[in-house]
Amino acid sequence: MPKEWSDKRERQYEHIKDSYKERGVKNDEAEERAARTVNKERSEAGETKSK
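Above: the chain's sequence. Below: its structure in token form.
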């Protein structure tokens, strides 16, 4: 997990990753999907730097 994530986003990442793993998604894929989802949420909430 990136250092820029807040505690809330870290919890969100773990929850999403665990959910994917429960559905049978491989660990590497679950981690990538969870990270992408959290980053998308951060972007939509204005928590990222704009270019």
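The longest helix spans residues 27-44.
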